[in-house]
């Protein structure tokens, strides 16, 4: 692709946590991450202790930890000491209700303060925390609770009645239901508010060990049935180091991660990483709203902002004019994750916010950021950047036995050398599947990528999404990025369809920017634009218009669903589907 490299200014380099990323990478080992933290006073390691109590012990309890904004205009502030006390109360409530270290607590609610208190209070008590999206329907909730053998859930009365009450008794492990919004709980449930009020603020943090299970995260379900990835307390080494290197989190930095904790990003970088780094995190209970978001960036003087391509494309769709009235001068660093970030989005960030978006890559399985564009690195728009300190990444030919490392520029499977602290320890009840992801000393990610001569990694597509047409290997990302450069196109999803002569042909689904209407002429124009950018062999044969594209709750385009629907095949697991108008 022909986007100019964005060179970093001296100020941007000076702001970076790693001013010389290549040297920083060479000098780093994970013991240094351990040194960024304290460990438990009596031995052991606990994420919640590192996130909260450590700061209090160091005399920083008065620093603002969480500034929360409610849907309806209310707001609440919590210092590190406030959260340390609130989570101690929560941990005591767990104990009073018979829950023990190792038990599993699920959360199922919107981004309310109680969610954050529950997450850290659960870890403090030595229980395992598993966050779910509150918008999941009863079946996805039930399946995930069965897979993870839930012992307790924290939720709202309405969610409980609508989505859990009916089948609750059929999950034998599920002992306790905490309701956050009632004073008198219905039978079989505990009213959390009064219980917290009655509980002590003193709690000795559970003496968890580095390898004790801490978190169960379900994958987004983009490519199939979601998997339950298990993470341990030691993951906090990765949370602290990657947050510092890839997001420049530092004590007192004003930081906003827009992800919901139901998606791994919203827990690793929406709770743990900012707090272990001593930052001030903002949380907005409301969903995306352009003016609300721009207003938040300006009013709260956000310095570091971590969001996702789907939101960036929504902002782009509204145009730079919508952003013009706002003052974004406090922003210092912008990052994006979850899907490939089209080069146009990277550059748009620079135009509108004064800084490019820094794309980074990781997965539920990896627990933390693995490959990133760092603040001090020049950005090649469309590239995911380079491996972080402590991470060795490669591109391998997974068709060869033993695995062969690909040459520069050659497309292969993105692989990582196992051994970083936040690597999943298993997929729950799917040990064989977990084992299969490791071969010849590599962890295989299931994504396709290539590495260029400067060591930058470029995302090509999911291994399942690669299109083979007339001898060409076509990654959907490249085609989608070319399509959204057309002035009319807001989003694009690209799939391969079986074809007798070509093997497969490329078909694109696009949604349009405001002011454009679907027409045959526009379709021809978009195809012409793509042909010019990509050449006739790679450009889509057909472009169809959609109001929205099917996406997961974490905002990822579900190409497998576009394909299944096109071919009249079973839709498979759609428990994480969010928009469904296609
Ligand atoms: P499932 O594994 O259930 O199909 P999922 O892979 O979408 O769902 P996540 O773990 O939330 O679940 O997402 C990780 C995947 O998201 C990566 O493997 C990759 O395909 C994609 N991804 C994340 N960040 C990036 C990025 N910066 N560029 C390209 N793709 C990305
Ligand atoms: Mg995946």
From TrEMBL:
Residues 55-428 form the AMP-dependent synthetase/ligase domain. Residues 478-556 form the AMP-binding enzyme C-terminal domain. Keywords: Acetylation, ATP-binding, Ligase, Membrane, Nucleotide-binding, Transmembrane, Transmembrane helix. The keyword Protein transport does not apply. It comes from the Bacteria. The keyword Membrane applies. Its EC number is 6.2.1.1. One of its GO terms (molecular function) is acetate-CoA ligase activity. The chain crosses the membrane at residues 115-136. This is acetate--CoA ligase. It comes from Thalassovita aquimarina. The lineage of its organism: Bacteria, Pseudomonadati, Pseudomonadota, Alphaproteobacteria, Rhodobacterales.
